[in-house]
Amino acid sequence: MAQSILKIALDVPLDRLFDYLGNGQPVQVGQRVLVPFGNRNHIGIVMGITDSSEISIGKLKPVIQVFSEETPLDAEMLSLIKFSADYYQYPYGQALLSTLPARLRQVAPAVSRKQYLYQLTDAGRTADIEQIPKKQKVLRSVLSTLQAAYQLTEAELDAISGTARKAAKALVDMGYASSKQVPLLQRVMTLTPAAEPQLNAEQMEAVQQITAEPDVFKAWLLYGITGSGKTEVYIRLLQRVLQHAGAQVLVLVPEINLTPQLEARFRTRLPGFPLVSLHSNLSESERLQHWQLAQSAAAKIVIGTRLSVFTPLPDLKLIIIDEEHDSSYKQQDSMRYHARDVAMVRAKRLNIPVVLGSATPALETWYNATVNPNKASQYGLLRLKERAVTAAQLPQIDCIDTTKVNLQHGLTPQLIAALRLRLERKEQSLLFINRRGYSPVLLCSACHWIAPCSRCSSRLVVHLAQRKLRCHHCGHEQRIPHQCPSCGDADLHPTGHGTQRLEQTLAQLLPTARIARVDRDSISRKNALIEILDRVHSQEIDILVGTQMLAKGHDFPNLTLVGVIDTDSALHSPDFRASERLFAQLMQVAGRAGRADKAGQVIIQTQFPDHALFNALRTQDYESYANVLLHEREQMQFPPYVFTALLRAEANDYNLVQQFLHFAFVQARILNDQVLVYDPVRPQMERLKGMERGYLLMQAKQRPALHHLLKQLVTQMRAHKLAAKVRWAIDVNPLEF
Ligand code: ADP
Ligand code: ZN
Ligand code: ZN
After folding, report:
1. Whose CA is nearest to atom 23 of ligand 1?
2. For residues 575-581, average pLDDT
């Protein structure tokens, strides 16, 4: 017999597979193996098993080890990752390995503690209990429990009876059940399932439409403001889909911070269904275990952040993407995938529905749900117009013109008065600061010098408590200088409304207020945010000051005032997505005010109170604003009316970047005249972490033309002599420029 040759994907930046000899151990496609590569051993994944190689057999090295006790990756996952790697122009092996839990990228075999899981077979489903003699009580009760629950773990069997495991094995012998080994699953049982609200008509309609054709691909936009009952719809969808024996559901959430809340709600409402979460706050062993539970189909509900779109789920029947507009679904380095787009491809291939939920859908999504002329790719649009709890009212939104009043440390008298009123009423307030540009910088009042970062084109941020200047882009730190390095003057002072400064100002103005600050510095500790949020819930905090971290998903019933300090920089940003993002953010923070039975108020300080964005916000009219923005995008020929890709390049020396981008520019023009190639430019942040940066933007009316070009271009760039000196990457459908 000819010796088997394994085609293996490795985590190396080369877009090809590598041939190795089998070592006699049984092996399947998708299996993890250990192979020698270069001067060390690498983990690889078997992509093919053949008996021929372009390299002579004598030169091939054998694999060191096949992890044959592990379940191989299934064909669906391998092909989804292949698609993604091609689409995002990223080497396949690197893409594949990067989707695995860290433990599976390490050399040691990945063992979790295991137990047997018993699942009902088709014969078991239709089996008649009465055929089992009455005196075999345990056998009868295990079968009937299995018929109701579809599957039981050893621990659950133990809860039925001391001999239930034996009974389960007997059911396997009778053909009524199958058994398999799975990682240990801790099922959190909730004894009293939470009460079910009666769905309103819109919610009912949504559930019915989405579940009408379960085995057909269809994308649905579930569009409804915060509190309109989207999560309740998800829960009903899960209930319906999971009724079908063995079905699995994937729920994507934008932030780790949001998973515990959703997890708790799902656990109490769907107590019978094993649920695992997948996000970067898990320990490596938890992550591996949860991933394996998903892969073995023991877990029925998987809640996770963007990477979990690549989790093997053999019985996947529904994908839900909560807050689908959130930009954290886009990976910003290595393979720059967008989890929503990958989920869409996955659902299409599996012929299952996918539900996108948002109060402020991404313009791409809104386009697909409203104007996309291509009927086949049009999304179903489901609106939830009312807040689900009728008592909850929409907040009142006031824009205060900051050019017409006297500011006290950046705060308008109206906002200060509103804060006072909340203190008197023992209600809570949230002050929201837009992240960009609102950190205090060090300014020389004599010559207007501002302390710069030596490694980035950015300004250093003042951290008074530590008496340090710090760069928020590269982490560079230095002491606060005593005099201006430019003119020698000693009058250097922090300027700008950083969250720290605002906190101090508030403490002066409202000395009795208990204030907490949430920004990247104050919550760098792992559980700091959760602790602060707990204190807000237990009414130990009156005023919460923070950045967009606070905008999302937290429900504070006693919070009745939201102040927005300054957003004007985003109104006039060169980034064409800035106003879309700002609107979504403000809708979200506004949703924080007055969620329970208390009316909320939102005060926005701005120099442009009559801006269309604020007008739309006042009436919470996402739709008309989205239509205005779409019209602008069409006029300007921006996405979603065109498709874009960005070549990002950086090097120590800008000359190299320039040469490289020029090469790509010329090649791209020669290769494809369907694609518009712009002149290379420098991004706003010209230098980052000591690297000089440049961009090349490509744009096309049709996606295939762009992808065809990228494929050829990437091959040429990889072969270019500068490719080793210039760090470069392709960003398909970039979100940030
Ligand atoms: P969203 O996800 O759109 O923010 P939720 O599903 O969280 O909205 O609903 C907001 C609140 O209203 C929750 O407390 C939820 O339990 C409640 N709720 C949802 N639907 C209903 C309903 N049909 N009847 C009563 N309460 C509901
Ligand atoms: Zn100076
Ligand atoms: Zn820096």
Report:
1. 199
2. 87
What domains does the chain contain, in order, with CATH numbers? 5-74+89-105 (3.40.1440.60), 114-183 (no CATH), 201-384 (3.40.50.300), 396-439+496-632 (3.40.50.300), 643-732 (3.30.70.600)
- Residues whose CB is less than 8 angstroms from the CB of residue 500 and which lie 6 or more positions away in sequence, other chains included: 440, 463, 464, 465, 517, 521
Query: 201: helix, coil or strand?
Result: helix
Separation CA 177–CA 143 (nearest Å): 9
Three-point CA angle 449, 452, 455, nearest 5°: 155
Whether 227 lines ligand 1, by a CB cut-off of 6 Å, is yes
**pLDDT computed for residue 526 by the predictor:** 58
Q: Is residue 497 scored above 60 in pLDDT?
A: no
User: How confident is the prediction for the chain on average, in pLDDT?
Assistant: 88
β 218-224/380-384 pair status? parallel
Distance 689 CA to ligand 3 centre (A): 5
Question: Sign of torsion, CA 387 390 392 396?
Answer: positive
The C-alpha torsion from 553 through 556 and 560 to 566, rounded to 10°, is -40
- Which atom of ligand 1 lies closest to the CA of 225? 3
| Closest atom of ligand 1 to CA, residue 233 | 6
229 CB near ligand 1 (under 6 Å): yes
226 in ligand 1 pocket by Cβ < 6 Å? Answer: yes
Q: How far is the CA of 234 from the centre of ligand 1 (A)?
A: 11
The verdict on the CB of residue 199 being under 6 Å from ligand 1 is yes
Decide if 656 contacts 726 (C-beta within 8 A).
Answer: yes
Q: What is the rounded CA–CA span in Å between residue 518 and residue 531?
A: 11
For 410-461, how does the pLDDT look when each residue is reduced to its tens digit (9 = 90+)? 899 999 999 999 999 999 999 988 654 456 788 888 888 889 998 888 888 8
Nearest-ligand number for the alpha carbon of 450: 2
- Among the ranges given (18-22, 30-34, 227-231), the one the predictor scored with the smallest mean pLDDT: 227-231
